Amino acid sequence: MDPAAPPLRLTFGAPHARPGTAPDFSDFPVPEAGAMRRPPVDTPAEEMRDLAFGMIRILDDAGEARGPWAEALALDDAAQLEGLRHMLTLRAYDARMLLAQRQQKTSFYMQHLGEEAISCAFQRALRPGDMNFPTYRQAGLLIASGYPIGTMMCQVYGNDGDPGRGRQLPVLYSSKAHGFFSISGNLGTQYIQAVGWAMGSALSGAEAIAAAWIGDGSTAESDFHAALVFASSYRVPVILNIVNNQWAISTYQEVARGSVGTFAARGHGFGIPALRVDGNDYLAVVAAARWAAERARRNLGPTLIEHVTYRAAGHSTSDDPSAYRPSDEGASWPLGDPVARLRDHLIARGVWSAERHAQAEAEILAGVIEAQKQAEAIGTLHQGRRPSPAEMFDDVYAEMPPHLRRQRQQAGF
Amino acid sequence: MATDILMPALSPTMEEGTLAKWLVKEGDTVTSGQILAEIETDKATMEFEAVDEGTIAKILVPEGTAGVKVNTPIAVLAEDGESAADAVQSAAAPAAAAPAPVAAVAAAPAEAPAAPVSKASADWPEGTPMKTMTVREALREAMAEEMRADENVYLMGEEVAEYQGAYKISQGLLDEFGEKRVIDTPITEYGFTGIAVGAAMGGLRPIVEFMTFNFAMQAVDHIINSAAKTLYMSGGQMGCPIVFRGPNGAAARVGAQHSQDYAAWYAMIPGLKVVMPYSAADAKGLLKTAIRDPNPVVFLENEIMYGRSFEVPDLEDFTIPFGKARIWREGTDVTLVSFGIGMSHTLEAAEKLAAEGIAAEVIDLRTLRPLDYDTVLASVMKTNRCVTVEEGWPVGAIGNHLSAVIMERAFDYLDAPVINVTGKDVPMPYAANLEKLALATSDDVVAAAKSVCYR
């Protein structure tokens, strides 16, 4: 025994602020917008390590779009206005569904507040046929691809209009046609499956790519690591997204990250190029997603993207975040609000105004309320038309075996 | 003393039926177990056997009579030496004094389950040329044939390609199909199972080889929570056509963590199909069916069985449907039900029982989900006794389930409680002597069979 050796101990990450203390993001560096270089898509991972530790940001505090990523993106005003509309729709939808849950029209809901840009913007890099393997906080992928919010509401209510026939938890949507696989209630499994799906696409000579989604906390699951092994070993046409919204329910992101490096930097252990992007910057997310999609489509392999954001609301309707973090922490989040930032940019460009924004918010909310009325006319959790038990035995197998048919008949159908 | 032969109830809920055909006539001597008549219900036609020995003194209900109530006397059986006239006389008297308890039977629930009809028949035409083949070769042929037929089929797992398979099941497949379709994986069951499930969701037809099913424990979330449920949870939009295969159960001296039989585990899961073949012919025909099936299939092999030889049909393409048991040996005294390696002990036990004058009927379930209840029930209704045999643990065993089904659907046919012969309720010990004690043996099966025959 070495008398000079210190006693062994363990170190575990902890948040910088808890309820009752002042929010503290002093050790969270916010790089200047437009400062990050944009390497060619075929750059080897080892020559672009800086992109995993810095941050791609386009919109500055004055609402100006800056730097090489903005120049390469060249998103026209109409596309930016459409993006703003998608985010406003998702925010209004969330607000109405949160109220509906409080009115017991559904049992459970999960909102996106503060994270709207990521899924709404990312979808702009995809083509029909591409497939997302999302988590429960990427409903913007559906809204931006034109999936009807009324149908989403029917899913949340589990009524007779739900295409999933009332089998899944609220918000676990599924639409093959909209590139939205489904959502696993078990954390992480979708990550490696996205890699497998993309390998299948490549093996069968198709053109579709896949996008995997995971939260900061779930990167601790073995699925995450296995996904990186395969994505790297076979140079799979997949985009590996990590949404780092600082909080895995009550667990601060440092627990999964180990208080060192960044989530993006994990890609470099596997030789996978990695981008760390301002997730509250709509333009930066579109730019990063398109860069990664081009790599996948050109057989250059996977890209890891860490979307840095902040979960401004509770994890779900079952969560009270004031129990584990300062209730005013979101207000001091250094990357701001994604809707306000794109709005200010469009106003600065002279194509939008505060009045038109207020008018658009009102119009979108009216549309969401109208869709909600129609969905509720079909039914809600405890009222109206619910999926028939006759369908309960469908889809257990591709073809219904006789014993299930008998069970269905015994159930009176 | 003469006895009435009563109209039988072919299911717990049957109330009446048609006496379709008499197979005996007045004056015939009958033995116990001999088929007397054919009875029709609205669901099935069943043969009806004599319980006691004797002479048919009188037929009371002519053939072709419909609407015969259960427990109505349909014939009179005279004991040896008794005259037919005396018999009819003696049988009629107590019948008048104590009417048959029709009401009690009629009170049964109205929703009658379908009467079992044996689906056990030959899987290939009679006269088909046969060839001798090991289970290993049969599995390899099945994969190779299906990979030739469908380019979406591929094999992945640890050591399946360059090493030709940990147990050489995939020998030669890399040479024939190339590294695109015979894929060595990193050592992460969770990883490659997730990969394969994802690829299947995308339309490919992966065969995942687990070096043993014990290692699949790591991947069980993908198998159960994803593969088995995706079709259902996506509202039928996207499914998972995949085969998970590899050796299952105890081999020899591989200890507690590498000797588990997962038959009952996977058989519990809706959405999965579960296959556990015994013979090489079944291994081949069922694996081909598994690869073609649009659902996820768990295909449980056995290391000890890989080297055993069987006769296999020499056909270009043959498959065996799921949910169809095979009767290996017909018998009238006791039904022995098993599957997989359990069949070895069971067939051996049947031989020993035959030497002691007990005719055992031996049923190989072959697939556990779907499970061929009808063949088992039909046999139990014939033999009135049943022993199940499996290698797995006794709690939540396949045999437990079968016992419950037999009790529900053939209770009145049982002359003895069903006995489940299983492995002992312990993690598998390493030491050879203890390992032997932990597993079911043919002697265990013989003892159980004699017990239910009260011998």
UniProtKB/TrEMBL annotation, chain A:
Q: Where is the Dehydrogenase E1 component domain?
A: 86-380
Q: What class of enzyme is it?
A: oxidoreductase
Which CDD domains would you find in this protein's record? TPP_E1_PDC_ADC_BCADC
Q: Where is the 2-oxoisovalerate dehydrogenase E1 alpha subunit N-terminal domain?
A: 6-45
Per UniProt, the keywords (alphabetical) are: Oxidoreductase, Thiamine pyrophosphate
Which cofactors must be present for this protein to function? thiamine diphosphate
The source's domain of life comes to Bacteria
Checking PANTHER family in the record gives: 2-OXOISOVALERATE DEHYDROGENASE SUBUNIT ALPHA, MITOCHONDRIAL
Reactions this protein catalyses: N(6)-[(R)-lipoyl]-L-lysyl-[protein] + 3-methyl-2-oxobutanoate + H(+) = N(6)-[(R)-S(8)-2-methylpropanoyldihydrolipoyl]-L-lysyl-[protein] + CO2
Family statement: Belongs to the BCKDHA family.
The GO terms describing molecular function are: branched-chain 2-oxo acid dehydrogenase activity
Function summary: The branched-chain alpha-keto dehydrogenase complex catalyzes the overall conversion of alpha-keto acids to acyl-CoA and CO(2). It contains multiple copies of three enzymatic components: branched-chain alpha-keto acid decarboxylase (E1), lipoamide acyltransferase (E2) and lipoamide dehydrogenase (E3).
> What organism is this sequence from?
Paenirhodobacter ferrireducens
This protein is called 2-oxoisovalerate dehydrogenase subunit alpha
User: What EC identifiers does the entry list?
Assistant: 1.2.4.4
Which residue ranges are recorded for the region named Disordered?
Answer: 1-42, 312-331
InterPro entries linked to this entry: Alpha-ketoacid_DH_E1_comp, DH_E1, Oxoisoval_DH_suAlpha_N_dom, THDP-binding
Q: State the Gene Ontology BP annotations.
A: branched-chain amino acid catabolic process
UniProtKB/TrEMBL annotation, chain B:
Keywords associated with the record: Lipoyl, Metal-binding, Oxidoreductase, Potassium, Pyruvate, Thiamine pyrophosphate, Transit peptide
One annotated GO molecular function: pyruvate dehydrogenase (acetyl-transferring) activity
Q: What class of enzyme is it?
A: oxidoreductase
Q: Name one Pfam family in it.
A: Biotin_lipoyl
Q: Which InterPro entries match?
A: 2-oxoA_DH_lipoyl-BS, Biotin_lipoyl, PDHB_mito-type, Single_hybrid_motif, THDP-binding, Transketo_C/PFOR_II, Transketolase-like_Pyr-bd, Transketolase_C
So what does this thing catalyse?
N(6)-[(R)-lipoyl]-L-lysyl-[protein] + pyruvate + H(+) = N(6)-[(R)-S(8)-acetyldihydrolipoyl]-L-lysyl-[protein] + CO2
Q: Where is the Lipoyl-binding domain?
A: 2-78
The UniProt entry, under CDD domains, shows: lipoyl_domain, TPP_PYR_E1-PDHc-beta_like
GO process annotations (BP): pyruvate decarboxylation to acetyl-CoA
Enzyme Commission code(s) on record = 1.2.4.1
Determine if Oxidoreductase is one of this entry's keywords.
yes
Its cofactor is:
thiamine diphosphate; (R)-lipoate
Describe the subunit structure.
Heterodimer of an alpha and a beta chain.
The family database entries (PANTHER family) matched by this protein are listed as: DEHYDROGENASE RELATED, PYRUVATE DEHYDROGENASE E1 COMPONENT SUBUNIT BETA, MITOCHONDRIAL
Function recorded in the entry: The pyruvate dehydrogenase complex catalyzes the overall conversion of pyruvate to acetyl-CoA and CO(2). It contains multiple copies of three enzymatic components: pyruvate dehydrogenase (E1), dihydrolipoamide acetyltransferase (E2) and lipoamide dehydrogenase (E3).
Q: What is this protein called?
A: Pyruvate dehydrogenase E1 component subunit beta
The species this protein was found in: Paenirhodobacter ferrireducens
